[in-house]
């Protein structure tokens, strides 16, 4: 278990960000960084919980042991 600092507030952009669907082509969109936000000390959070990682590992192990040649979905 990692200690995650809760002293760093989550960053909320000051400028309205366009939705992904509004950005067309390869045009570079202007942006600015928040001068008050400490980008060097951001508390990172894991993408998956411990339980999700265990489920993924178990699923991966099952697929490796699966000798069923049926190519349909496995539930």
UniProtKB/TrEMBL annotation:
- Coiled-coil zones: none
Stretches the record annotates as Disordered = 56-75
Which GO molecular function, any one, fits this protein according to its record? intraciliary transport particle A binding
Protein name, as recorded = Intraflagellar transport associated protein
What organism, scientifically named, is this protein from?
Nannospalax galili (Northern Israeli blind subterranean mole rat)
Sorted alphabetically, which Pfam families does this protein's record hold?
A: IFTAP
Q: Name one GO biological process term.
A: acrosome reaction
Cellular component annotations (GO), alphabetically ordered: 9+0 non-motile cilium; cytosol
InterPro entries according to UniProt: IFTAP (IPR040028)
Lineage here is: Eukaryota, Metazoa, Chordata, Craniata, Vertebrata
